Amino acid sequence: MSGLLLYCRGGFEAECGREAEVYAEELGVEAEAQTLPGGGAVFLPLPEQAAEELATMPFYKWIFARQCLHVIGHVENLPERDRTGPIALAVPPAAYSELWLEAADTEAGKPLLPFCRKFTPYLEKALAERKVKLGSQRGPRLHVFFTDKQTAWIATSEADNASPWPQGIPRLRFPHEAPSRSTMKLAEAFHVFLDHEDQQRYLKQGLRVVDLGAAPGGWTWQFASRGLKVTAVYNGPMDRKLMAEYAVTHVRDDGFRYRPVKPVDWMVCDMVEQPARIAQLVAKWMAEGWCKRSIFNLKLPMKKRYEELLRCRAIIQDALRKAKVPYRLRFKQLYHDREEVTGYLELRE
Q1: The pLDDT value given to residue 247
Q2: What's the rounded Cα separation, in Å, for the pair 306 and 177?
Q3: C-alpha triplet 130, 5, 160: angle, nearest 5°
Q4: Does the structural domain 183-347 have CATH classification 3.40.50.150?
């Protein structure tokens, strides 16, 4: 059995699967994605060569997949008294960097996580007996994904081209000083879209930010707490503590009408609005030279979510192409997103 195993947000299996099918079609391969029992994961059966090619595609290109794995084995009907044996036999003898036992981030998968933690040392011992080496600096990461205690998917990933977090879920702490939990979306976006060097360069003290639709201030706080100068645009009030403790300028205006006096380093937007309208707004800010980079959320509709995302991407691409603006555009459904996708757009020098 060969193919891809993709982790995703529960309820977005269709979008994750369709995205994978489109990438396969670009290779000339027709494939039909399958939602695994319990949801939160999708399997795309592929010929080995196509599976290898898509598994090595830059991970940042995946939008709905939290993790992309190359499937190398599948074991069913695991006996309760000896689950380690069949799994160990299904793992090709090789050197791997580490072993992750995982389950889906769904109601069906969460009860399996304690089992995964308890089962890990027993499987490590069984693998060692089969001369499977763990701890290699150059080997791929070995994943064993359980849909239930009797079924395991065995797969690999390259650490430098995959999510660095088990289940593809970032382990971030909520800062209690922040005015709202929406702050976690932006915190995660920084990790996903900016490497360490970019964070040092683009989130440094003194840079100027416009936060459209800012209330109560969760996104504003992420910048202000780092010493960036934020203009928070919202018709209503902002969080009082935020305004008292940080150098934030509050402008009571509509996010779609506001224009900066002079260009800024960042424009961010988490307004609840039709996604196409947000895409047009972001494209205009970049095309007019009002900002250098932007992080924004697209609130997707209940139906045809993948198609709507493609439409929004085309809106931005077409507008910047006409304006002859060099850019880099990426999208990701973050763990802290819900019925939405986060976008990152930057002016390329």
Answers
A1: 87
A2: 35
A3: 75
A4: yes
